[in-house]
Amino acid sequence: MRLLLSVLLVFSIEFSQVDLSYYLPADISYDQKISKPADILGFQIGDWHLRADQVQDYLTVLAKESNRMQMMPMGESYEQRPTTLLIVSSP
Fold first, then answer.
1. Comparing C-alpha atoms, which of 88, 74, 83 is closest to residue 52?
2. Quick one: DSSP state of residue 71?
3. pLDDT digits over 11-23, tens only?
4. CB–CB of 13/45 below 8 Å?
5. Which domain holds residue 9?
6. What is the mean pLDDT of residues 29-55?
7. Could you please report the per-residue DSSP string of 9-70?
8. Which of helix, strand or coil describes residue 4?
9. Is the pTM of this model over 0.70?
10. Number of domains in the chain
11. Cβ 54 vs Cβ 45: under 8 Å
């Protein structure tokens, strides 16, 4: 019985993985200068939960690489963490 439950657990975990082709569709041309999330984070989106500092780091890189994004400091949180404003617009 334990073996059967173990096998079912392994297969349920394996088949619960979601295909991420919707996230970056292949039929759309992307600006090659812009880093993909996996290049900055070290893993594919959806493999791990993102911490706030990881999101901040990736958005900072995007703002430096893109002329459509601008990141401005807003101040600090109660815990002395930086708060930023991300502006996304046309170039």
1. 83
2. E
3. 666 666 666 666 6
4. no
5. 2-88
6. 87
7. HHHHHHHTPPP-TTTS-TTS---TTSPPHHHHHSS-BTTBPPPHHHHHHHHHHHHHH-TTEE
8. helix
9. no
10. 1
11. no
